[in-house]
């Protein structure tokens, strides 16, 4: 499968069944981006913006980011959005909504887990990321979303994780 047309499109194989079929080769799940990983500087920029969104309001607000590939680099976009303490929704008319390969949102002090709201809203074909526990132990959780089907992957496959940012995939026993 690929996320965008063209030679730079991500390639993925997602495990849909663990049942072996006689005569078919075993295929291991993978995600291969034909782009460099997102830089640690960009991760810190998202953490700072999430911290600011969660610090100067009566209740911490979630914040949403889009990462769009622009020829030679990842562009961090903070689109127009509707923010609450428990959810954030993008303006679906924003160009970054249509062009983002990666969508990130914060969970301020909450656990770095995809919620029922996340599952209902994240129904497209892209990488979805939570930046959670931003005030204590900033952590990234990443999953591939393919029209309602989801597969969690290590954050370090997609991001250069800077010092102090944990990868939720490795924080749990699998």
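^ structure tokens above, recovered residues below v
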């Amino acid at each position: 499968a690929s996320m965008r047309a063209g030679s730079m499109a991500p390639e993925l194989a997602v495990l849909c069944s663990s049942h072996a079929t006689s005569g078919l080769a075993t295929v291991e799940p993978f995600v291969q981006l034909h782009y460099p990983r997102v830089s640690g500087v960009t991760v810190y920029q998202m953490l700072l913006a999430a911290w600011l969104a969660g610090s100067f309001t009566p209740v911490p607000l979630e914040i949403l980011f889009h990462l769009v590939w622009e020829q030679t680099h990842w562009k961090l976009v903070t689109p127009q959005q509707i923010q609450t303490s428990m959810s954030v929704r993008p303006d679906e008319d924003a160009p970054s909504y249509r062009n983002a390969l990666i969508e990130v949102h914060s969970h301020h002090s909450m656990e770095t887990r995809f919620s029922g709201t996340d599952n209902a809203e994240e129904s497209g074909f892209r990488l979805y990321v939570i930046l959670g526990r931003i005030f204590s132990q900033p952590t990234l959780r990443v999953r591939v979303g393919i029209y309602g089907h989801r597969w969690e992957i290590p954050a370090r496959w997609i991001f250069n994780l800077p010092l102090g940012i944990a990868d939720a995939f490795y924080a749990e026993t699998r």
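The helical segments are 40-55, 95-99, 116-121, 168-171.
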